[in-house]
Specification:
Elements: E1 6-9, E2 18-21, E3 30-32, E4 35-36, E5 41-42, E6 46-48
Antiparallel strand pairs: 1-2, 3-6, 4-5
Protein name: Kin of IRRE-like 3
InterPro entries: Ig-like_dom_sf, Ig-like_fold
């Protein structure tokens, strides 16, 4: 697994997906978005600020 601290959680059957970052640190400070490759759909960007 390329990103063992990053998990996708939620009710996948109903289309609910959330990014969970374990032990977030300064390197995780970034803009994130979800992309469904098959449908070419992207979520709005979400900014994570780690202090």
């Amino acid at each position: 697994a390329g990103y063992p601290r990053y998990l996708v959680v939620g009710d996948h059957l109903s289309g609910e997906h959330h990014l969970k970052i374990l032990r977030a640190d300064l390197q995780d400070d970034a803009v994130y978005e979800c992309q469904a490759i098959q449908a070419a759909i992207r979520s709005r960007p979400a900014r994570l600020t780690v202090l």
